[in-house]
From TrEMBL:
Residues 123-222 form the OmpR/PhoB-type domain. The keyword Transcription regulation applies. It comes from Mesorhizobium humile. This is Response regulator transcription factor. Residues 123-222 bind DNA. It comes from the Bacteria. Pfam families: Response_reg, Trans_reg_C. CDD domains: trans_reg_C (cd00383). Gene3D superfamilies: 3.40.50.2300, Winged helix-like DNA-binding domain superfamily/Winged helix DNA-binding domain. Keywords: DNA-binding, Transcription, Transcription regulation. Residues 1-116 form the Response regulatory domain.
Amino acid sequence: MIVIVDERELVTDGYSSLFDREGVATAGFAPGEFGEWVSSAADTDLRSVRAFLIGDCRDGAISPRQIRDRTGAPVIALSEHHSLEHTLRLFESGVDDVVRKPVHIREILARITAIRRRGSEEAAYTEVGSMRIFMDGRDPEIDGEPLPLPRRERRILEYLASNRGRRVTKTQVFNAIYGIFDEEVEENVVESHISKLRKKLREKLGRDPIDSKRFLGYRLVF
């Protein structure tokens, strides 16, 4: 999930729509709401956040260092100002990157992946046996051949891979794929997505790489 902060609801809604086309869940906040949320959100909710995008906010309304106190997810500033002084102020405030608008959604996703990779939180891909799982939206490969997947199934596989070695609950998967504030989709949809994903992986691999335990959740089997 990606969190977008901007004083203009039209902007947060617009970015959410664009990310949704890429199969990426989002949550939009006004600056005041965001400050309260990030200081009180549960650790499990924050672990579902892949990055924070900070747009137009009044000076001092958002503190990247406050975000850093709670999570290591990248903080990227979306800037409409093309002055060097403004860009330097943003970096001094603690953001990881400054992106000048207009910018394509896929470029933002690529920058997020690059930042996480440099921070050793996320590699360019994860290999599970003969399967290579990319973290930038590409379909996984099995024995070098792409395996086309619907975007939700692909994102679930990426999320499981990014949590390699750890078991994640159905709620954590749902929050990462649909967002923690999506009330229009039932959490049980995760089970349907994973069932379809497992079937496709079994057909290609000859085994089931997703281990599941009731009440404990899911993990990739290496």
